[in-house]
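Practice problem: predict the structure.
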Amino acid sequence: MMIDMEKFDFNSHITKVVKPKVELLYPEKEKFYAYFTKLLNSIVIAQSNGKRSLEISEEFGNQLMQIYRYINRDQELENEKTNFGRHWNLDAGLLLMGNFGTGKTLILKGIYELMKDQAKKGKLIGIQGRYITARQISTCYQFTPKEMPTLIGKPENDIFIDELGDEPLSVSNYGTSESPVYAVLKQKLDDWDNITRKPRLFTTTNLSKKEITERYHERVWSRMVSSTNILILGGGNDSKDMRKA
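Answer:
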């Protein structure tokens, strides 16, 4: 018997899946917020050699609160939307977009440092991976390609890539021109579907959606949309370059 696909009721056909409850990592979330804010402040102080401390505008504070809730696995956050009309997914990675100096790298480093700090204390936060810049990936491929697996980490591991788009569009290794950052992105995003322990991509970029698709292909952008939470930092009335004294 042929099924009329135009009249087929997919909603009644698909069995409803009840998502398991996601527990908060830190029940006393106010203390966690204060702890993570202190961690971010220590990064700012270190990077400025003690000349600056963290300043949080109202706009950045609102976005930072979403990051807190995301890391803390606040299930109610999944009822709220990120950018491009998508809802938050606590199991997905994070793509931080926006202009220079809007706090993207600070947040990325903060999550990475939190991961390392908690691991030292014997507490895992569900994130495990290496921190690298896009330019480091290109440099590694060009001069020490044998070290690429070590730089990127195991297939099932997460990866933190800072300053996506800052690297050369392509590099040459023994006469072969390649785009290693594109290759790493494609592999990690493909692994999201193929590996049980879904490796998440945590990345920052100053590129726009159009620039990402032009540089890395439409397929990479499409996979980013489905496997990361996209948050555009800055752009509001009180937006400013946070790196300025």
